[in-house]
Specification:
Elements (H helix, E strand, L loop, with lengths): L21 E7 L2 E8 L2 H6 L10 E4 L14 E6 L5 E7 L13 E6 L2 H5 L8 E4 L4
Length: about 130
């Protein structure tokens, strides 16, 4: 996966600060979705590699492109800008290289077909809320 820049602000996540690896909730038009957050270099690089599926979504931040080399399943990919507005949603089969989205700042990944059910499409704004550490 290709990443650019430093860790992003959690402004759209309901608070100031930097993103950290962990979990949370993603507010989408059709409700709320479980969220995993990959913000460190290691977590962004690992992504969904080696998995057979995902429940919910994976937020990769910061990045503006992804690949599916080594993936075991088809995924939906939503490219988000700094304000968490969806720029594009694509479905990627394993072994593909996604296009770089110059305005992209974050990427959401989910099981193929999931994002349509969540109401994600270009122009929709989502909110990511990290879980509080215990």
């Amino acid at each position: 996966m290709r990443s650019r820049g430093s860790a992003g602000s959690a402004g759209s996540a309901g608070g100031a600060g930097r993103w950290r690896d962990g979990s949370g909730t993603l507010a989408v038009p059709e409700g709320a979705v479980e969220l995993e957050i990959a913000a460190s270099y290691r977590a962004r690089r690992r992504g969904l590699l080696g998995r057979d599926g995902i429940t919910g979504a994976l937020l990769i931040t910061p990045t503006n492109s992804v690949h599916t080399f080594g993936m075991r399943f088809t995924i939906d990919v939503a490219y988000l800008d700094r304000d968490f507005t969806v720029l594009d949603v694509v479905t990627m089969k394993p072994g593909r290289l996604g296009m770089i989205r110059p305005r992209g700042r974050h990427v959401l990944e989910a099981a193929g077909g999931a994002m349509a059910g969540w109401g994600l499409r270009p122009g929709v704004r989502v909110t990511a809320v990290p879980s509080r550490a215990a």
